[in-house]
């Protein structure tokens, strides 16, 4: 059905004042009054429902407007029907217009749906350090269309919510305990494990940003071809993650040297047969 002025004229042209009776007008006014009252009651119910869902706070205004417009459109169609107007062409017009708008705003609507999913499911929140589809950074804000990240090197990354809601998200932030820092250090086979652990523990004790609870852990993690790997696991606030990470790496060398622990590298020993 073509969408032009003839459709609108076909609908509203049926409003012939000569056919309006007192009974018809009274019924229309009564329906409008009841509909207006119902809309007010329903909007109050919607407001109470939204107030109970604090996780959707960013969507309150948009959801409220959508419900309000939908209710008023329904009331107008009901009023036209009470005036014995054939509203079938108008419904067809609204359907075609709605389809055209949805196609034109397909990407935007997809991002909006993704934003609603993120705000409702809450896989992360502002301040969390996350990784998603190869992108990594601290969440600055969660909008309806985009999620904004701040990368470690200071870049602002705006990710469409349609992509973010479908991505595999790794949230490194634990709001109760902070964020865990894992560092792997290598030491020679000749160095006693207890000596290596003591050297690493001295570095851990020297970094004030490391939390005492959960307690730091220092364990042998692997036996490599030329060295033994030790994993260091400590907890810190998310903002101090990289400070602690680099402090562990930088302090380990001096501490190993102090305790006589050799930091080995991959090498090959060749023994020649004297014969």
Walk me through the structure:
The chain is an alpha+beta fold and 275 residues long. It is built from 8 helices and 8 strands; from the N terminus they run αααααββββαββαββα. The strands form 2 sheets. Strands 4-3-2-1-5 form a 5-stranded antiparallel sheet. It has a 3-stranded antiparallel sheet with strand order 6-8-7, with helices on one face. Helix 1 (5-12) packs antiparallel against helix 4 (88-104), helix 2 packs antiparallel against helix 3 and helix 7 (193-205) packs across helix 8. The longest helix has 31 residues, at 22-52.
List the topology elements:
Blueprint: H1 5-12, H2 22-52, H3 60-82, H4 88-104, H5 106-121, E1 129-132, E2 135-142, E3 146-150, E4 156-160, H6 161-166, E5 169-171, E6 179-187, H7 193-205, E7 217-223, E8 228-236, H8 241-258
Antiparallel strand pairs: 1-2, 1-5, 2-3, 3-4, 6-8, 7-8
Helix pairs in contact: 1-4, 2-3, 7-8
């Amino acid at each position: 059905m073509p969408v032009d002025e003839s459709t609108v004229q076909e609908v509203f042209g049926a409003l012939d004042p000569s056919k309006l009776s007192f009974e018809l007008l009274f019924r229309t006014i009564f329906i409008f009054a009841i509909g207006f009252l119902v809309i007010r009651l329903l909007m109050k119910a919607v407001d109470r429902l939204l107030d109970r869902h604090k996780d959707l706070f960013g969507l309150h205004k948009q959801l409220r407007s959508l419900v309000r417009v939908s209710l008023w459109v329904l009331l107008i169609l009901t009023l036209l029907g009470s005036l014995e107007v054939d509203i079938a062409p108008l419904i067809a017009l609204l359907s075609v217009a709605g389809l055209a708008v949805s196609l034109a705003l397909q990407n935007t609507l997809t991002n909006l749906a993704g934003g609603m999913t993120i705000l409702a499911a809450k896989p992360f929140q502002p301040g969390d350090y996350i990784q998603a589809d190869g992108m990594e950074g601290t969440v600055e804000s969660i909008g309806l269309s985009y999620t904004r990240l701040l990368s470690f090197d200071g870049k602002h990354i705006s990710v469409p919510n349609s992509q973010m809601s479908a991505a595999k998200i790794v949230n490194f932030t634990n709001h109760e305990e902070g964020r865990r820092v894992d560092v792997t250090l290598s030491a020679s086979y000749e160095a006693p494990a207890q000596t290596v652990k003591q050297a690493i523990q001295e570095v851990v004790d020297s970094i004030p940003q490391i939390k005492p609870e959960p307690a730091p852990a220092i364990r042998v993690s692997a036996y490599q071809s030329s060295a033994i790997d030790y994993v260091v696991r400590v907890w810190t606030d998310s903002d101090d993650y990289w400070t602690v990470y680099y402090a562990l790496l930088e302090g380990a060398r001096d501490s190993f040297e102090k305790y006589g622990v050799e930091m080995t590298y991959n090498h090959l020993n060749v023994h020649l047969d004297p014969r």
